[in-house]
Amino acid sequence: MNIxxxxxxxxxxxxxxxxxxEFIGGNVPGSINIPLQDLPQRLKDLKSLQTPLILCCASxxxxxxxxxFLAGQGVDCCNGGSWLDVSYFHSQTQYLKR
Length: 98
What we know:
Elements: H1 3-8, E1 13-16, H2 20-24, E2 32-33, H3 43-47, E3 53-57, H4 61-72, E4 77-82, H5 83-96
Parallel strand pairs: 1-2, 1-3, 3-4
């Protein structure tokens, strides 16, 4: 999956799997926060979101684990890596709208 294209075309949902404290410290506009450890309990909620899910975290490690778990549950998702990278792609989309 081309994450840049997905974000640019406003497909899917950005899911940040960091802790709430990390999320409050900075996040991608419009993203939702579901911490990695909460994914199994929130699976039904995640399956109801617009896919593909673009998973992000601080460095890409937790989003990689989230991708592995969710893909194994049949959820259409991709590892976006660092939320800063995803935020950059998102900001470029905002710039292109002007």
